Amino acid sequence: MPLTTEILPLRCGTIRAPANALEVDAPGEVVLPVYAFLITHPSRRSVVFDAGLARTDHGRIVGKTFHNDLPQGHDVAARLTAAGVDPAQVEGIVLSHSHYDHMGGAALIPNARIFIHRQEELRTLDAGHDLIRTEDSHDLFGDRSVEVFATPGHTCGHQSLRVRREGGADVLAGDACYYCHSLDRDDADQPYAFDKDQYLATKRRLVAMRAAGDFIIPGHDESFLDRIPKGSAVRASGLSRL
Ligand SMILES: [Zn+2]
Protein backbone atom coordinates (compact mmCIF):
# COMPACT_ATOMS: atom_id res chain seq x y z
CA MET A 1 0.00 0.00 0.00
CA PRO A 2 1.56 3.32 -1.06
CA LEU A 3 2.18 6.02 1.56
CA THR A 4 1.72 8.70 -1.07
CA THR A 5 -0.37 8.91 -4.20
CA GLU A 6 1.27 7.08 -7.10
CA ILE A 7 0.87 7.38 -10.86
CA LEU A 8 1.46 4.37 -13.12
CA PRO A 9 1.53 5.19 -16.84
CA LEU A 10 -0.10 2.43 -18.90
CA ARG A 11 0.71 2.34 -22.59
CA CYS A 12 -2.57 1.56 -24.37
CA GLY A 13 -1.80 1.63 -28.06
CA THR A 14 -0.22 3.76 -30.75
CA ILE A 15 -1.43 6.23 -33.36
CA ARG A 16 0.38 6.91 -36.63
CA ALA A 17 -0.56 10.29 -38.04
CA PRO A 18 0.68 13.07 -40.31
CA ALA A 19 2.93 15.22 -38.11
CA ASN A 20 1.19 18.40 -39.26
CA ALA A 21 -2.05 17.14 -37.71
CA LEU A 22 -0.43 17.79 -34.33
CA GLU A 23 2.01 20.59 -35.02
CA VAL A 24 1.71 23.39 -37.52
CA ASP A 25 3.90 22.71 -40.60
CA ALA A 26 5.67 19.67 -39.09
CA PRO A 27 6.90 17.34 -41.88
CA GLY A 28 6.39 13.60 -42.29
CA GLU A 29 4.60 11.16 -40.02
CA VAL A 30 4.67 10.67 -36.27
CA VAL A 31 4.04 7.57 -34.19
CA LEU A 32 2.26 8.60 -31.01
CA PRO A 33 1.96 6.62 -27.81
CA VAL A 34 -1.48 6.55 -26.19
CA TYR A 35 -1.74 6.38 -22.40
CA ALA A 36 -4.04 5.70 -19.54
CA PHE A 37 -2.68 6.56 -16.09
CA LEU A 38 -3.54 4.62 -12.96
CA ILE A 39 -3.71 6.92 -9.92
CA THR A 40 -3.53 5.07 -6.62
CA HIS A 41 -4.37 7.07 -3.50
CA PRO A 42 -2.85 6.05 -0.12
CA SER A 43 -6.36 4.98 0.96
CA ARG A 44 -6.12 2.34 -1.83
CA ARG A 45 -8.85 4.04 -3.84
CA SER A 46 -7.89 4.17 -7.47
CA VAL A 47 -8.92 6.05 -10.59
CA VAL A 48 -7.58 6.25 -14.11
CA PHE A 49 -6.87 9.41 -16.06
CA ASP A 50 -7.89 8.68 -19.65
CA ALA A 51 -8.53 5.17 -20.90
CA GLY A 52 -6.54 4.73 -24.11
CA LEU A 53 -7.50 2.94 -27.29
CA ALA A 54 -9.87 -0.01 -27.22
CA ARG A 55 -11.57 -2.47 -29.55
CA THR A 56 -15.27 -2.92 -30.12
CA ASP A 57 -16.93 -6.29 -29.50
CA HIS A 58 -16.21 -7.03 -33.15
CA GLY A 59 -12.47 -6.49 -32.71
CA ARG A 60 -12.24 -3.21 -34.58
CA ILE A 61 -10.26 -0.44 -32.85
CA VAL A 62 -12.54 2.36 -31.70
CA GLY A 63 -11.85 5.50 -33.74
CA LYS A 64 -11.36 5.92 -37.47
CA THR A 65 -9.12 8.99 -37.49
CA PHE A 66 -5.49 8.16 -38.34
CA HIS A 67 -3.94 4.67 -38.22
CA ASN A 68 -4.43 3.12 -34.80
CA ASP A 69 -2.67 0.10 -33.37
CA LEU A 70 -3.55 -1.76 -30.18
CA PRO A 71 -1.54 -4.96 -29.59
CA GLN A 72 -3.21 -7.88 -27.82
CA GLY A 73 -3.08 -7.37 -24.05
CA HIS A 74 -2.48 -3.61 -24.24
CA ASP A 75 -5.97 -2.26 -23.62
CA VAL A 76 -6.54 -0.56 -20.28
CA ALA A 77 -8.29 -3.54 -18.66
CA ALA A 78 -5.46 -5.92 -19.58
CA ARG A 79 -2.86 -3.39 -18.45
CA LEU A 80 -4.61 -2.87 -15.10
CA THR A 81 -4.87 -6.61 -14.58
CA ALA A 82 -1.17 -7.00 -15.37
CA ALA A 83 -0.50 -4.31 -12.75
CA GLY A 84 -2.43 -6.35 -10.17
CA VAL A 85 -5.51 -4.13 -10.22
CA ASP A 86 -8.99 -5.49 -10.92
CA PRO A 87 -10.61 -3.11 -13.45
CA ALA A 88 -13.93 -3.65 -11.64
CA GLN A 89 -12.42 -2.05 -8.51
CA VAL A 90 -11.37 1.18 -10.23
CA GLU A 91 -13.80 3.79 -8.97
CA GLY A 92 -13.32 6.62 -11.41
CA ILE A 93 -12.28 7.55 -14.93
CA VAL A 94 -11.20 11.14 -15.36
CA LEU A 95 -11.46 11.98 -19.04
CA SER A 96 -9.21 14.79 -20.26
CA HIS A 97 -11.61 15.13 -23.18
CA SER A 98 -13.88 13.08 -25.35
CA HIS A 99 -11.61 12.09 -28.25
CA TYR A 100 -11.49 8.40 -29.08
CA ASP A 101 -7.87 7.85 -28.07
CA HIS A 102 -8.64 9.08 -24.54
CA MET A 103 -12.03 7.55 -23.83
CA GLY A 104 -11.96 4.38 -25.95
CA GLY A 105 -11.16 2.07 -23.04
CA ALA A 106 -13.76 3.53 -20.65
CA ALA A 107 -16.18 0.69 -21.40
CA LEU A 108 -13.59 -1.79 -20.07
CA ILE A 109 -13.75 -0.28 -16.57
CA PRO A 110 -17.33 -1.19 -15.73
CA ASN A 111 -17.99 0.19 -12.25
CA ALA A 112 -16.27 3.54 -12.49
CA ARG A 113 -17.91 6.92 -12.46
CA ILE A 114 -16.77 9.11 -15.34
CA PHE A 115 -15.52 12.61 -14.55
CA ILE A 116 -15.81 14.88 -17.56
CA HIS A 117 -15.86 18.69 -17.61
CA ARG A 118 -19.32 20.20 -17.79
CA GLN A 119 -18.45 22.03 -21.02
CA GLU A 120 -17.01 19.04 -22.84
CA GLU A 121 -19.06 17.72 -25.71
CA LEU A 122 -20.43 14.28 -24.88
CA ARG A 123 -19.62 11.85 -27.63
CA THR A 124 -20.58 8.19 -27.58
CA LEU A 125 -20.42 7.13 -23.97
CA ASP A 126 -23.04 4.47 -23.74
CA ALA A 127 -21.50 1.89 -21.41
CA GLY A 128 -23.84 2.82 -18.56
CA HIS A 129 -21.39 4.69 -16.34
CA ASP A 130 -22.55 7.39 -13.96
CA LEU A 131 -21.34 10.75 -15.19
CA ILE A 132 -19.94 13.49 -12.95
CA ARG A 133 -19.80 16.82 -14.75
CA THR A 134 -16.79 18.59 -13.23
CA GLU A 135 -16.37 22.31 -12.64
CA ASP A 136 -13.10 24.14 -13.37
CA SER A 137 -11.53 22.62 -10.27
CA HIS A 138 -12.46 19.29 -8.69
CA ASP A 139 -10.90 17.77 -5.56
CA LEU A 140 -10.91 14.10 -6.52
CA PHE A 141 -10.31 12.39 -3.16
CA GLY A 142 -11.55 15.16 -0.87
CA ASP A 143 -8.13 15.80 0.67
CA ARG A 144 -6.72 18.18 -1.97
CA SER A 145 -4.05 15.65 -2.96
CA VAL A 146 -5.36 15.25 -6.50
CA GLU A 147 -7.02 18.09 -8.38
CA VAL A 148 -8.75 17.89 -11.73
CA PHE A 149 -8.59 21.34 -13.34
CA ALA A 150 -9.83 22.91 -16.54
CA THR A 151 -7.30 23.34 -19.35
CA PRO A 152 -9.54 24.42 -22.24
CA GLY A 153 -8.47 25.05 -25.79
CA HIS A 154 -7.71 21.68 -27.41
CA THR A 155 -11.41 21.06 -26.81
CA CYS A 156 -13.79 23.41 -25.04
CA GLY A 157 -14.01 21.23 -21.93
CA HIS A 158 -10.50 19.80 -21.81
CA GLN A 159 -9.19 19.10 -18.29
CA SER A 160 -5.91 17.96 -16.71
CA LEU A 161 -5.00 16.37 -13.39
CA ARG A 162 -2.47 17.48 -10.76
CA VAL A 163 -1.03 15.17 -8.12
CA ARG A 164 0.59 17.11 -5.29
CA ARG A 165 3.88 15.90 -3.87
CA GLU A 166 6.81 17.32 -1.97
CA GLY A 167 8.40 20.15 -3.94
CA GLY A 168 5.60 20.55 -6.46
CA ALA A 169 3.27 18.31 -8.38
CA ASP A 170 2.98 15.95 -11.31
CA VAL A 171 0.57 17.19 -13.95
CA LEU A 172 -1.11 14.91 -16.47
CA ALA A 173 -1.69 17.49 -19.16
CA GLY A 174 -3.56 15.35 -21.69
CA ASP A 175 -3.76 17.00 -25.09
CA ALA A 176 -3.33 20.49 -23.69
CA CYS A 177 0.32 19.60 -24.41
CA TYR A 178 1.09 16.88 -26.97
CA TYR A 179 4.88 16.66 -26.68
CA CYS A 180 7.61 17.33 -24.12
CA HIS A 181 8.83 20.22 -26.29
CA SER A 182 5.36 21.70 -26.85
CA LEU A 183 5.72 24.18 -23.99
CA ASP A 184 9.12 25.38 -25.22
CA ARG A 185 8.37 26.34 -28.77
CA ASP A 186 6.07 28.92 -30.30
CA ASP A 187 6.34 27.30 -33.72
CA ALA A 188 4.95 23.98 -32.50
CA ASP A 189 1.37 24.85 -31.69
CA GLN A 190 -1.65 22.73 -32.50
CA PRO A 191 -3.25 23.41 -35.87
CA TYR A 192 -6.73 22.29 -34.86
CA ALA A 193 -7.28 23.54 -31.33
CA PHE A 194 -10.98 24.11 -30.69
CA ASP A 195 -10.22 27.60 -29.36
CA LYS A 196 -6.78 28.93 -30.20
CA ASP A 197 -6.80 31.76 -27.61
CA GLN A 198 -7.82 29.38 -24.84
CA TYR A 199 -5.23 26.88 -26.01
CA LEU A 200 -2.49 29.52 -25.77
CA ALA A 201 -3.71 30.72 -22.36
CA THR A 202 -3.65 27.13 -21.10
CA LYS A 203 -0.14 26.68 -22.55
CA ARG A 204 1.06 29.79 -20.67
CA ARG A 205 -0.47 28.43 -17.47
CA LEU A 206 1.32 25.09 -17.89
CA VAL A 207 4.60 26.91 -18.58
CA ALA A 208 4.13 28.85 -15.31
CA MET A 209 3.34 25.66 -13.39
CA ARG A 210 6.49 24.04 -14.74
CA ALA A 211 8.54 27.09 -13.75
CA ALA A 212 7.14 26.71 -10.22
CA GLY A 213 8.39 23.13 -9.97
CA ASP A 214 5.67 20.97 -11.50
CA PHE A 215 6.49 18.06 -13.82
CA ILE A 216 4.28 18.37 -16.89
CA ILE A 217 3.45 15.04 -18.54
CA PRO A 218 2.34 15.45 -22.16
CA GLY A 219 -0.42 13.52 -23.87
CA HIS A 220 1.50 11.78 -26.65
CA ASP A 221 5.25 11.72 -26.01
CA GLU A 222 6.93 8.77 -24.29
CA SER A 223 10.19 10.64 -23.69
CA PHE A 224 8.70 11.97 -20.43
CA LEU A 225 9.54 8.50 -19.07
CA ASP A 226 13.24 9.41 -19.28
CA ARG A 227 12.75 12.74 -17.49
CA ILE A 228 10.90 11.75 -14.33
CA PRO A 229 12.26 14.00 -11.57
CA LYS A 230 13.33 12.86 -8.10
CA GLY A 231 10.35 12.82 -5.77
CA SER A 232 7.82 12.40 -8.58
CA ALA A 233 4.72 10.29 -7.97
CA VAL A 234 5.23 8.64 -11.37
CA ARG A 235 6.20 4.95 -11.12
CA ALA A 236 6.99 3.83 -14.64
CA SER A 237 7.22 0.12 -15.42
CA GLY A 238 7.28 -2.20 -18.41
CA LEU A 239 3.55 -1.50 -18.73
CA SER A 240 4.42 2.11 -19.52
CA ARG A 241 6.14 1.14 -22.75
CA LEU A 242 5.12 -0.73 -25.87
ZN1 LIG B 1 -4.99 12.50 -27.97
- Shape descriptor reads globular
Structure summary, number of beta strands: 12
Q: What class do helices, strands and sheet pairing give?
A: mainly beta
CATH class: Alpha Beta
CA gyration radius, whole angstroms: 16 Å
Task: Write the CATH architecture name.
Answer: 4-Layer Sandwich
Note the total helix count: 3
User: Which ions and ligands are bound to the chains?
Assistant: zinc ion
Helix content: 10-25%
N-C termini distance: 26 Å
CATH superfamily: Ribonuclease Z/Hydroxyacylglutathione hydrolase-like
Uncertain ranges: none
- Average pLDDT, rounded to a whole number, is 94
Strand content: 25-35%
Describe the structure.
This protein has 242 residues and is mainly beta. The chain has helices at residues 76-82, 100-103, 196-211; strands at 6-18, 29-40, 46-51, 67-69, 92-94, 113-117, 131-134, 137-139, 146-150, 159-165, 168-174, 215-218. The chain has a 7-stranded mixed sheet with strand order 4-1-2-3-5-6-7. Residues 99, 101-102, 175, 219-220 line the site of zinc ion.
Identify the notable features of this structure and list them briefly.
30% strand, globular, Metallo-beta-lactamase, Chain A, 5-stranded mixed β-sheet, mainly beta, 242 residues, 3 helices, binds zinc ion, 7-stranded mixed β-sheet
